[in-house]
Design goal:
Number of domains: 1
Largest sheet: none
Number of strands: 0
Distance between the termini: 32 Å
Strand content: under 5%
Shape: globular
Length: 97
């Protein structure tokens, strides 16, 4: 680690504390960020259309990048993988409370 690097989080820290340490959040900003994430995750849980919109918007960059990289994969399979990855991300996000 260089002199400007933050100390590595301890294995005993929970994921919220680890994230706060890694991005250098100040204690006073924690409530605003927590509130914002709670509003978003609650909305994603309650609104299937919003969830689907976020899933689609997360999945598309994977498909776009695969196309730019000329990845040799059947488009239908890539679509399936990208959507599963996006769904996995969202499910982890909304179930972290």
């Amino acid at each position: 680690m260089n002199a400007k690097s933050k100390a590595a989080p301890k294995a005993t820290d929970n994921s919220k504390e680890v994230a706060q340490k890694l991005i250098g959040l100040k204690p006073e900003s924690n409530n605003k960020l927590t509130d914002a994430v709670n509003v978003l995750t609650d909305a994603l849980k309650k609104d299937p259309d919003l969830y689907f919109a976020w899933q689609s918007n997360i999945a598309m960059p994977f498909q776009d990048e695969a196309a730019r990289q000329n990845v040799a994969i059947e488009p239908k399979k890539l679509h399936e993988i990208a959507n599963k990855a996006a769904k996995n991300f969202l499910d982890v996000l909304i179930n972290q409370k």
